[in-house]
Structure formats: structure tokens, C-alpha cells
Write a structure and sequence with these properties.
Order of helices and strands: HEEEEEEEEEEHHEHHHEEEEEEHH
Structural class: alpha+beta
Largest sheet: 7 strands, antiparallel
Helix content: 10-25%
Shape: globular
CATH superfamily of the largest domain: Naphthalene 1,2-dioxygenase Alpha Subunit, Chain A, domain 1
CATH architecture of the largest domain: Alpha-Beta Complex
CATH topology of the largest domain: Naphthalene 1,2-dioxygenase Alpha Subunit, Chain A, domain 1
Number of strands: 17
Radius of gyration: 22 Å
Length: 344
């Protein structure tokens, strides 16, 4: 009897080529066709609590400002004056006097974006202030998380988040508020870091403290639409992590802790750097537990070292393509397919 194993085995996809992570000419394409055409996490509703409060940010190279109007409504605009492209803000956040005022020449805009005054502009026959309001940015809110849409052709956010909603049926985030903000700059292309986030294959090798908290043998990654779900049961009910990590295309991580969340925006800073913007959400904005900060710092430092080293190797010109594990790297495969549909 022929005992040859004829069971069909899954294929091992070829990775994306190294140039995807090194070629600066791809960056304008990614800004326009990935980031401007998909919802970008901007902030949490509690970060702009009162009328006239505002926050400024940069989303994939697009300067934005979000402000709560006197009517209580959140609105966002490109943080670019229509006069000569000056900024409307100097700091990261603040409270205005009822207007957004350009820091360059003092043009003033109402909180719904209309140009109220072009300071000392002088008489002119062909300048209509009604034509020079701020460029608006669409906003959508999901479970208190505020997303910004730079472009016009955007997906249905509620449909995109449905796989996470299905997993979070019993989760109540209504009392979560901003507890802490932190940022880490990495010398790597944004895709290098995202792919690291999308697999748990490296956890036993790279993250001993995390590996000690979870049952690595049961680590499971599921791709559902443009959402990736990581499930890793904690070994103890007192573990820092709750055992669920979510990721939403193209660059948002939602890390569930035993007391709150950490929203992780993997923000590209041009083609060669990535900034990890961490927003910790805790019950009523309470202080983030020291154990959570310690674990986060440790895992981030380990990730920083490996992704920067991988980027150096990609830049060296030795490596071109490799193979992806059908057991552990299905989400990386999906991510490379989605990116490839835009830039390949």
C-alpha cells in the first residue's frame, strides 16, 4: 500500500519585495490612495470635552485640527489657512476664543470653518471671503473613538468595524476617558512595523515578558474583512493584557488591557520613519497602572529594536523576497495583498 501523504498542504506565499519598504517614491501614492481613502484614528471624544476645546494632529502628513463648537458638535479641518498656508495652532491642544486664528497673518475663522475676518487685508474688488473657508474633514465616531476622513471616497466605518463589534458585544467603554498619551519614533517604514504587529510568530523569541503572560501555544490570528483579531489567552486573571488585540486597516491597533484600552496609531512620518501614537483610555481617565506602563515600555522597546534592525537589513540591498508562514502570518499575507492592490 502506498503510504505517501497526499493531504493538500497550504501554500507559502512569497513576501512583498524589499523596495516596498525602501523606495521613497511610493510614499506620495500611499498618502493619496491608502491614508486619504481610509478612516484615520484622530482622538477620543473625551479629549475635546468642552465647547471651544481643540486638538491639532498630523495624519500621514496631513495637518488637521479638531474643535468642539459652541453647539457641542465636533468638526475637523485641515490645519491650513486659506491665505498662505499658515497654521491655525501652535500647540498640540488648547481652548480658543470662539475662533480659529491663523498664527501667520491673523486670519480668523468661525468654528464651523467660515472665514470671519482677513485681518488688515485691504480693499479689493475680487476677493470674496465666502469662498475662502477652511477645508473640512469628515468625522465618524465609533465607541467614543473619533476617526477622520481626509478624502471623499471612504468605506463604511460601521461595517468595517463590525468584526470588532461582534467580539466586544459585552464590553462597555462608555466610562473610558483619556488617561495618558505617549509617542515613540521608530526609524523604519510604516509597513515594516505594521507587519510586525500583525503576527504573533515572533512573540516567544522577542517578547519574553509578554510570552510569560499568555498561552503562546493558543495564540490565534484571524482576518475578518479589513480587521485582524489576535487572541492569546492570559495565564492569570491578573495579567496586564486581556488577551485580545485588534487591528484595523490601514494602521490602527486596539490593545485591550484588564483596565481599559490602548489605541495605537502607527503613524507614518514620511517613507523612512514611523511614530507610534499611544492613547491610553481608562475608567474615568484614572492613572494608568504602573504594571501596564512597564509592560508597554518593554514590548515597545523590543519591537523598536527588531523593526529598526529589519529595516536596516532591507536597506542593505541583500534581501529581496522571502516566504510567509501559512500557520502564523496569514494577516501579513492579507496586508501585503491590500497594499499591493494600491502600489504594486
Amino acid at each position: 500500500m502506498d503510504s505517501t501523504d497526499t493531504t493538500a498542504k497550504p501554500v507559502s506565499p512569497v513576501t512583498a519585495p524589499a523596495r516596498w519598504y525602501t523606495d521613497p517614491s511610493l510614499w506620495p501614492v500611499e498618502r493619496r490612495d491608502i491614508f486619504a481613502r481610509n478612516w484615520q484614528f484622530l482622538t477620543h471624544d473625551s479629549a475635546v470635552p468642552h465647547p471651544r476645546d481643540w486638538r491639532a494632529d498630523i495624519l500621514a502628513g496631513y495637518p488637521v485640527v479638531i474643535v468642539r463648537g459652541d453647539d457641542g458638535q465636533l468638526r475637523a479641518f485641515h490645519n491650513v489657512c486659506r491665505h498662505r498656508a499658515g497654521p491655525l495652532t501652535r500647540e498640540a491642544s488648547g481652548t480658543c476664543d470662539g475662533y480659529l486664528t491663523c498664527q501667520y497673518h491673523g486670519w480668523r475663522y468661525t468654528l464651523d470653518g467660515r472665514l470671519r475676518a482677513a485681518r488688515d487685508f485691504g480693499a479689493t474688488a475680487d476677493f470674496d471671503p465666502r469662498e475662502y473657508g477652511l477645508y473640512p474633514i469628515r468625522l465618524q465616531t465609533w465607541r467614543g473613538l473619533v476617526f477622520a476622513g481626509i478624502g471623499d471616497d471612504l468605506p463604511d466605518l460601521s461595517a468595517q468595524m463590525a468584526p470588532l463589534d461582534a467580539r466586544l458585544t459585552n464590553a462597555d467603554w462608555s466610562n473610558l476617558k483619556v488617561g495618558l498619551r505617549r509617542a515613540h519614533v521608530l526609524d523604519c517604514n510604516w509597513k515594516t512595523y505594521v507587519e510586525n504587529y500583525l503576527e504573533g510568530y515572533h512573540v516567544p523569541s522577542m517578547h519574553p515578558s509578554l510570552d510569560a503572560e499568555i498561552v503562546s501555544e493558543q495564540y490565534r490570528v484571524t482576518v475578518d474583512g479589513r480587521v485582524v483579531l489576535h487572541d492569546a489567552p492570559p495565564k492569570s486573571p491578573d495579567a496586564v493584557y486581556d488577551g485580545l488585540w485588534g487591528w484595523v486597516w490601514p494602521n490602527i491597533g486596539i490593545n485591550v488591557y484588564n483596565r481599559g484600552l490602548m489605541i495605537e496609531r502607527m503613524s507614518p512620518v514620511g517613507p523612512h520613519q514611523t511614530q507610534l501614537d499611544y492613547l491610553y483610555l481608562t475608567p474615568d481617565g484614572e492613572a494608568v497602572p504602573e504594571a501596564t506602563i512597564a509592560m508597554s515600555d518593554q514590548v515597545t522597546a523590543e519591537d523598536k529594536w527588531i523593526v529598526e534592525t529589519v529595516q536596516e537589513n532591507l536597506n542593505a540591498g541583500v534581501y529581496d523576497t522571502g516566504r510567509l508562514s501559512p500557520k502564523h502570518e496569514t494577516a501579513v499575507t492579507a496586508f501585503q495583498r491590500w497594499v499591493g492592490a494600491v502600489i504594486a
